Amino acid sequence: MSSSLPIHAPHCVVGVIGGGQLGRMIALAARQMGVRTVIWTGGLEAPAVECADEVIDKPFDDSLALKDFCSRVTVATVEFENIPRETLETVAKCTGLYPSPYAICICQNREREKNFLRENNIPHTWFAVISSAADLAAAMKELNGPGVLKTADFGYDGKGQVKLEGDEDPEKIWAAFEAPRAVLEAWVPFEKELSVMAARGADGVTVTYDPAENRHRHHILDVSIVPARVSPAVALEAAAIARRVAEALDYRGILGVEFFLKSDGSLLVNEIAPRPHNSGHHTLDACVTSQFAQQLRAVIGLPLGSTRLLTPVVMLNLLGDMWQDETTPPDWLPLFEDGEAHLHLYGKRHARGRRKMGHANFIGATTESNLARAKALKALWLA
Ligand code: AMP
Q1: Residue 22: which of 271, 270, 276 has the closest Cα?
Q2: 52: which DSSP letter?
Q3: pLDDT tens digits along 268-303
Q4: What is the dihedral of CA 17, 22, 28, 33, to 10 degrees?
């Protein structure tokens, strides 16, 4: 262990802002490492609550909760990015917050994220910032083809997005859009969607995980296939771009970079997640260091762990539409009969259509077999 690192361990308390499934899996990894967690969540039904050592159940702009949180933790992180900037900055000053408020604020807003990519010469889709019908009309004219209009703030999993063919009336589209600011992006006829998890430690050492090949269902991640079925050159390029993103953000912690891969082999960054990411869940069972353990290492100031992939893996998201009814899960027996599948449930009591209830990792010698087993169980549970 390098003595130059600002090490908070052992016996440190990591504060996590947010109580969702990512917070839950950070808390579980912390337990394993002997690290205590304080989860700050808006609601005691949140998935992380039952795995945390301590919980603060107050809105993220509550000033007393902010003081309380800072007084209880040694160092802090976030498990989702839509947190008020003032809260992030105060926590950063009081205890240290990793990733930094700067990095989180870039990634919590599409306009800032796209401008960051442009300013740092990181390949991205063509875009224009829109704040009026006139802006939209001008941008649609310039684009002259299909695109997608996305809210600047707080969009995820396809929410706040409208696909445009290019011949719509901009006045009508903007009047119905109900957001003060947006970006219009060119529609990318991609061949595949990929993502790379990267982690950068307190000492600036950056590591990357093997790229994941991601497929979506209703705009929500359905399966991640690792290793991605791409050429070594594409895999290397994706890792190099993710590394550049982490360095340009002066990042500390884990981040996910999502890409479109075009048929000519070129890559465009679609989004950056300043936290563990759904497409990194396979690391729990298939990599030397999970993305959650890696986040804790980076945040605490420990050396990073190996990102080596131990086995091919397919991660299947388990959404609420697989549940038999709101409180009855699917029959898990066939999954347990598959001796190389791992079930991860988030402890959510009520299932709804597209709610992320858990995920399953199918490991095994070949991607074909992992994918076939995941597909068969998905079909069974959706039938
Ligand atoms: P996002 O919320 O930006 O990650 O978008 C959700 C999903 O919509 C992506 O994973 C893509 O499948 C699709 N999508 C978003 N933007 C584009 C684009 N510019 N071109 C093609 N597909 C897109």
Answers
A1: 276
A2: -
A3: 999 999 999 999 999 999 999 999 999 999 999 999
A4: -70
Ligand 1 center–CA 158 separation, angstroms: 7
Choose the CATH number for 190-382 among 3.30.470.20, 3.40.190.10, 3.30.720.10, 3.90.660.10: 3.30.470.20
* Burial 127-136, CB ≥16 within 10 A → b, else e: bbebeebebb
Looking at the DSSP bridge assignments, the partners of residue 195 are: 212, 258
Measured in Å, residue 271 CA sits from the centre of ligand 1 at 9
Domain coordinates of the chain in residue numbers? 13-97, 126-186, 190-382
Which CATH number does the domain 13-97 belong to among 3.40.50.20, 3.30.360.10, 1.10.230.10, 2.40.10.120? Answer: 3.40.50.20
If you classify domain 126-186 with CATH, what class do you get?
A: alpha beta
Interhelix angle 85-94/63-72, nearest 10 degrees:
30
User: Which sign does the torsion angle of CA 249, 294, 91, 9 carry?
Assistant: negative
Residue with structure tokens 């950070």? Answer: 26
pLDDT tens for 164-185 read: 999 999 999 999 998 999 999 9
Ligand 1 pocket: which of 108, 148, 191, 218 to mutate (most atoms <8 Å of CB)?
Answer: 148
pTM for this entry? 0.95
Number of the ligand 1 atom closest to the C-alpha atom of 186: 19
Question: How remote is the CA of residue 273 from the centroid of ligand 1, in Å?
Answer: 14
